[in-house]
Amino acid sequence: MNPDLDAPPSWRARTATFLGLERNIVAVSTSMLLLSLGENLWRKFLPRYLQALGAPIRAIGLFGSLEDFLDGVYQYPGGWLGDRLGRRSALILFVAIATAGYAVYLVAPTWPWIFAGIFLVSGWFSMASPALFAVVGDALPKERRAIGFTVQSILKRLPILVAPIMGGLLIARRGLVPGMRILFGVTIVLGIATMIVLRAVRIPRIHGEATDIRGVWRLFPSPLRWLLFSDVFIRTCDALVDIFLVIYATTIIGISAPRYGVLVAVQTATTILISIPAAKIADRIGRKPFVIATFIAFSLFPLAVVAAHSFAGLLIAFVIGGLREIGEPSRKALIVDFAQPALRARTVGLYYLIRSVAIAPAAFVGGLLWEQRPSLPFIAAVLIGAAGSVVFTLTVREEHAG
């Protein structure tokens, strides 16, 4: 008898199984960690960099709108390439495009160069998203996909806790423009390292019939369409108030900027703490209850903010804000569950393209409501979020997922 065959699995093997750490998941999760670390070194300071290069305030606002626009329209082309080229080749291409964008940021003599660079930088955080989704669907069985998305989510968020501080310290020491250029150089190095890591992805291409974007939409099963419809409500709820949260907290309630930073940290920590337990339970009992919980938390968050009159009240609100992510891995897993394997990346891309375009006017509408009364966008967000929660609860049947 071979004793190795009877030996219990090592703690590493048990941990890998528990967290869904299949080879391809490890490779793409590591790539997300590396580039998230690189981009978060300087992302929060990019408006100041634009300003230092001579951009007027209106141009900085336009840059933000362009970034949001590209985040939507790049999704489907990214999904098409992810299906057409295969996951590894597509992801390496997207990182190469983004790395070229970081190089443009590095050498930019004037602010219009930054506008040109965003068309390349978006190759990672927008265009690669459908392929990253599809890897989880390809590499893991249905009952382990929620934990796969959770690992990606945590590794993407961890750098947010430290990278902006590191970037800020370097900028304080070296000055804004020289410091930013050093940080862009670091991100270029991390981009090259990411391309090396992605060579470990080994997912065979899944061949299917050629189809255009209309064909992909026709192949959306009814539950996926209802999930998308309800998700548009929920993301409209979020977009109505998201850009105004810091203004409401600091000017209406009157807390300091450092205290607002504490609130953001509490929200992020709450998300990280709940993610793994929620995903493991969701993979075991089903995704729908956790998606409902996420949608309800999205609806309650603006209500909790507008009901708060002190830092303590906002602390409770931002804990609720962290709970909004309790079902996000489950929602993402549902999307890939419903998608046909040969169309996974394109399905994800089309889903996010439609969602991004649909919610684009929300922040502007929130501003119009704010001008009438600052609490109005928050109240409207609660009503719209509640409607989305009801729509999802009544229409989506998880048992229809493939």
If you had to describe this structure to a student in words, what would you say it looks like?
- With 402 residues, this protein is mostly helical.
- 79% of the residues lie in helices and 0% in strands.
- It is built from 21 helices and no strands.
- It has helices at residues 3-6, 11-18, 23-40, 46-52, 57-73, 75-85, 87-107, 112-125, 129-139, 145-174, 176-198, 213-218, 222-241, 245-253, 257-285, 288-307, 311-323, 328-338, 344-359, 362-372, 376-395.
- The longest helix is centred in the middle third of the chain and has 30 residues, at 145-174.
- The chain is globular and about 50 Å long.
Write a brief structural summary:
The chain has helices spanning 3-6, 11-18, 23-40, 46-52, 57-73, 75-85, 87-107, 112-125, 129-139, 145-174, 176-198, 213-218, 222-241, 245-253, 257-285, 288-307, 311-323, 328-338, 344-359, 362-372, 376-395. It is mainly α and 402 residues long.
